Amino acid sequence: MQIAVINSGSSSLKCKLFNMQTKEVLYSVLIENIGEIGAEFKNHHDALESIDIDFCSLDVIGHRVVHGGEFFSEATLIDNNVIARIKELIPLAPLHNFSNLEGIIIARTKAPNIPHIAVFDTAFHTNMPKEAYLYALNKDMYEKHHIRRYGFHGTSHSYVSKKAAKILKKDINRLNLITLHLGNGASICAIKNGKSIDTSMGFTPLEGLVMGTRCGDIDPSIALYMQRELGMNVDEVDKELNKNSGLQGICNENDVRKILNNSNESSELALKIMIRRIQKYIGSYMVLLETVDAVVFAGGIGENSQYIREKIFDNALIKKLDSIVIETNEELEIATQCMNVHSIVISSS
Ligand code: ADP
Predict the structure, then answer these.
(1) In angstroms, rounded to a whole number, what is the distance separating the alpha carbons of residues 296 and 24?
(2) Do 123 and 67 contact (CB within 8 A), yes or no?
(3) Is 323 exposed, middle or buried (0-12, 13-18, 19+ CB in 10 A)?
(4) What angle is formed at CA 193 by the lines to CA 187 and CA 194, rounded to 5 degrees?
(5) CA–CA separation, 122 vs 137, rounded Å?
(6) What is the C-alpha to C-alpha distance for residues 87 and 61, in angstroms, rounded to an integer?
(7) Which atom in ligand 1 lies closest to the alpha carbon of residue 260?
């Protein structure tokens, strides 16, 4: 069985082709800077056309979709209704869902006779308890406007939790984990008996940990102050919090590898702020879970930086926990979820 996974971002297109029997990657491509001045491809259509895969001969094409809202709690076979729902969710994730949808539409035109399946970043978190996903806002904000915590990076948290169960030789349904996906974007998840019960990203991927360029948790009044007192408009505030903050905001650099090499005061401070936030979340998830089988490190920083892992564990409470490093593989998880949906579709048809 051959499955291609397409991750169509705002200016990039990633595609991986898997042989699902062997889990071997048969083809992999990353096209960046789509549509930018002087770039090789002026749009996603041309980028997809350049990919050297006979899409019509595949068994399934899997698509990463960032926001599934409350509609999608699992990987879903794409039809026109699913497309309409993903479109409806664009206001919740304007950059992401729009580009994800563009990839789906182009790929369906290219390969109309094979199943296309959407795998959502939010799906793993859809069964969080209400007390975890509701903000303490007026209930109309949730009931009429769908403002709640959705959580993201679900594909990664799900993949590493299942992998951890295998490594620890435990039943996933009896496993409590704190999983950390620490990349440019970063989130942490409290997993009880294999299910997400809380996570640091919220209504959007801006909430929670200190990230490469995103601030994570702040007093929401700061956004109001920026507008009222600093005269910034909504787009400027959006850019400030998403692109000019986090590690970048504190030390002018968002790449942790480079920050570790810059031994100056602001670099050290940026890492201290990032680590302290991670420790606060681990502490609060220890309380929620009561027993923790392991802390799982994943993502570029989590997988590669022993220094950051040691700093996080340099705490009398946290150091009592076991930890493992697991290389995340979101594309393989998407392909695996697609395979499961595909076999259900085949067996019921
Ligand atoms: P993305 O969220 O873009 O997928 P990644 O998961 O690839 O990001 O993580 C990127 C981050 O991982 C960068 O901050 C990078 O510096 C960091 N990183 C990668 N390798 C190392 C390393 N050996 N030591 C420290 N940080 C690393």
Answers:
(1) 24
(2) no
(3) middle
(4) 50
(5) 21
(6) 19
(7) 25
Active site residue 121: yes
Residue 100, helix vs strand vs coil: helix
Digitized pLDDT (tens) for each residue of the chain, 349 residues in all: 999 999 998 889 999 999 999 999 999 999 999 988 888 999 999 999 899 899 999 999 999 999 999 999 999 999 999 999 999 999 988 888 999 999 999 999 999 999 999 999 999 999 999 999 999 999 999 999 999 999 999 999 999 999 999 999 999 999 999 999 999 999 999 999 999 999 999 999 999 999 999 999 999 999 999 999 999 999 999 999 999 999 999 999 999 999 999 989 999 999 999 999 999 999 999 999 999 999 999 999 999 999 999 999 999 999 999 999 999 999 999 999 999 998 877 777 7
Could you give the CA distance from residue 44 to residue 1 in angstroms, rounded to a whole number? 26
Determine which residue's CA is closest to atom 12 belonging to ligand 1: 300
Distance of CA 157 from the midpoint of ligand 1 (Å): 17
Q: How many Cβ atoms from other residues are within 10 Å of residue 238's Cβ?
A: 15
Residue written as token pair 């009044």: 221
Q: Collapsing DSSP states into helix, strand and coil, what is residue 108?
A: helix
| Domains annotated on the chain, with CATH | 2-120 (3.30.420.40), 172-328 (3.30.420.40)
Instruction: Give the active site residue among 79, 121, 140, 219.
Output: 121
For the CA of 247, the closest atom of ligand 1 is 14
Contacts of 88 (CB under 8 A, 6+ apart): 69
- Give the residue carrying structure tokens 């009561």: 290
Let me know the angle formed at the C-alpha of 185 by 19 and 88, rounded to the nearest 5 degrees. Answer: 75
Of ligand 1's atoms, which has the minimum distance to the CA of residue 299?
A: 6
Say how far apart CA 217 and CA 210 lie, in whole Å: 8
Q: How far is the CA of 139 from the centre of ligand 1 (A)?
A: 39
Angle at Cα 96 formed by Cα 94 and Cα 99, nearest 5°?
A: 100
